[in-house]
């Protein structure tokens, strides 16, 4: 019995020694840690933004006169052609003004025609008659004067003959003036022509106002909004409809200002609509707003869609991945393995001879789930996650290779 007890104690002590040795060995070898390998792969850096589908130079439709809406022969969302009727106003008032202006033109034309056809001949005939009257009055005066000098007539009779002569001369002068005013350059003709010009201008204004009662589409496009109904009284200066012209389609997105230095005109992008997330389309960066929205800290950017898919709609919410940099082959790591990644001196824990070594690195572009390593590491080097903050420089570990991101 004592010998069996001794054998059991010996076995227990031996097992305890083995376990202690194993623990000491594992402590000396360090903990098991997942590592990530520096790889050489293609890398694309993108800036992701969201925004809306918009057509450049949207047209706001309104009226140029005040009036009551008689009809609206189009609906919101309808495609229209240039010149197509969009809004019609009541025309009773403008029609009456048009008829009045047309009547004034006819009256002015008749007045000018009367002067040209009858005024001048009548005035010329009056000159002939006045000249004849003057000749008769002059002869009568001369005869009366001679008889007065011989004493056959009194002074009063000579005075009457002189008055008749003066009147005849005045009448001839008036008739001659009447001829002058009826000549093509005369004042009456010029006044008649001026009146006709004014009447025609009033007619043109009335015709234009009549034309304003019909609002037409200035270009081909799609009506994306309508804020008017039949019977409404509308006034100039108020937008009643909004027309998106056919042609160029753009994406208008907001980019965080911290990414402004990465953007350049001509960069390619891949767009997708929130309503159709499984479909993509190509776009090109065409405009960068020179100003920054101080409230949101963002910059407005526009991208041209050369071949827009048929499912795109005005004001549709979209996302755009703008390609700002591309590397056909470069060293990469998951960004979660880099310490102080947003600071001036980033670094990693590199595994070297089963020990951790703090190595400074120089970073390049960042892609989806990857960051470019420009200096500090080589292909095949292994590093650990930056989330493992408990480990120290020089610490021994047992590295495990993993393909999963930390």
TrEMBL record:
Span of the signal peptide: none
Superkingdom of origin: Bacteria
One annotated Gene Ontology cellular component of this protein: efflux pump complex
Segments forming domain CzcB-like C-terminal circularly permuted SH3-like: 345-385
Coiled coil: 98-209
Residues annotated as domain CusB-like beta-barrel: 251-322
UniProt-listed SUPFAM superfamilies: HlyD-like secretion proteins
GO molecular function, one term: efflux transmembrane transporter activity
Keywords: Coiled coil
Domain CzcB-like barrel-sandwich hybrid: 59-244
NCBIfam families: RND_mfp (TIGR01730)
The family this protein is said to belong to: Belongs to the membrane fusion protein (MFP) (TC 8.A.1) family.
Protein name: HlyD family secretion protein
Organism: Novimethylophilus kurashikiensis
